Amino acid sequence: MEKLWGGRFEGKSEAWIDAFGASIPFDHQLAQQDITGSLAHVKMLAKTGILTETEAEQIIFGLNSIKDKLAAGILTFTIENEDIHLNIEKHLHDEIGPVAGKLHTGRSRNDQVATDMHLYLKETVQEVIKKIQLFRQVLLQKAEENIDTIMPGYTHLQHAQPISFAHHMMAYYGMLTRDQERFNESLKRIDISPLGCAALAGTTFPIDRAYSAELLGFSSIYENSLDGVSDRDFILEFLSDSSILMMHLSRLCEEIILWCSYEFQFIELTDTFSTGSSIMPQKKNPDMAELIRGKSGRVYGNLFSLLTVLKGLPLAYNKDLQEDKEGMFDTSHTILTSLDIMAGMIESMTLNKDIMENATEKDFSNATELADYLANKGLPFRQAHEIVGKLVLECTKKGIYLQDISLEEYQEITPLIEADIYQTLASKTAIERRHSFGGTGFDQVKAAIERGKATLKEE
Ligand code: ARG
């Protein structure tokens, strides 16, 4: 088949080599953006008088009918036409004849592909932001329903101090808010038009880059044509923001997996988000959470592949840059679905509140309370820490807890300890008294939820 760039060539191409060079198996996902970019380009060519109005109208007509076919799912692509740009141009020729050849005036596939990628990511990032917002909403709601749900807070995965489950949810709310901010800030660097940078050096045609950028809704244009066609920072940034997002989702998934284990039994996932085993009839596995934890690996991988592809690339366009696409598409699909799954999974999970609270009764997560109690009565904190540490050691030997020690025994150790100690040792009191800003105190958590609601409302 005749190549659109075939003029200079004498030898025949070979199908298997063509297939290696083709990007159409994946960049067909840019079809819509490619047509949008071409429509803006041709309108600019007419406005600047580079093409006549009639020529432009014919091309616009052709592009619109390709767009309709795409929407109807009847647009076909072939490997012979290499990539999305050449496939669409071929269709344009079929639709309107030789005038189709004028569309590529003052443009190269190099600025064309970069434009498509900018358009694609701008849409994707806006969608990601909406999904993060929905997930933050779910986290807030789960928090609000569980302000007085008590659970052990952990450090080193060891019981540390009791906390409110809402506080735990709000920690993730904070992470996701930062993720959203990061994606939002990245838009500034995505929202730039490379169209008109041409192959690398600009063009001799009197094009109007600002006009095509405006038609495409871009806020600014690349100031250097070499930079415009070779920049993939905006994709790296997307992959990096996505990696951080996936890391957060993965941490929550890890906790979910632990919480629904037999040992914890803190939560139960609905059947929709679980799967069974083909051999063990009793199994209900948290597959979706495990998959999201696993998929964080491929998103990190996509970031590292592109970093590696770009390292050492001379300016301007090199075919290596075609390798920017699969990781970007894969990451977009992965994070968008992961966010949907997370929202559904958290929203529908049920909590075994009694088990969670009981886990804070049969443990030493109130040891800090006793130390603080003594410090409040004037004992230097270090000394208080030492006394309580010894008590914990004795208790573990006897198989009892701090709340099981009698008042007489306590007073033998130090008369500073009085009858109110038992109230102090209760996990509810431990939480209640943590009034410091951002702490787990019920009042603090309520305030954090209110702040969260106000922020979401403002966005
Ligand atoms: N399919 C190519 C890519 O994705 C389009 C740009 C081709 N440019 C070129 N000079 N061969 O990067």
From TrEMBL:
Pathway: Amino-acid biosynthesis; L-arginine biosynthesis; L-arginine from L-ornithine and carbamoyl phosphate: step 3/3. Its main location: cytoplasm. GO terms for molecular function: argininosuccinate lyase activity. One of its GO terms (biological process) is L-arginine biosynthetic process via ornithine. SUPFAM superfamilies: L-aspartase-like (SSF48557). It catalyses: 2-(N(omega)-L-arginino)succinate = fumarate + L-arginine. Residues 7-301 form the Fumarate lyase N-terminal domain. It is found in: Cytoplasm. One of its GO terms (cellular component) is cytosol. Its EC number is 4.3.2.1. Keywords: Amino-acid biosynthesis, Arginine biosynthesis, Cytoplasm, Lyase. The keyword Cytoplasm applies. Pfam families: ASL_C2, Lyase_1. Residues 364-432 form the Argininosuccinate lyase C-terminal domain. Belongs to the lyase 1 family. Argininosuccinate lyase subfamily. NCBIfam families: argH (TIGR00838). This is Argininosuccinate lyase. It comes from Enterococcus termitis. The gene is argH.
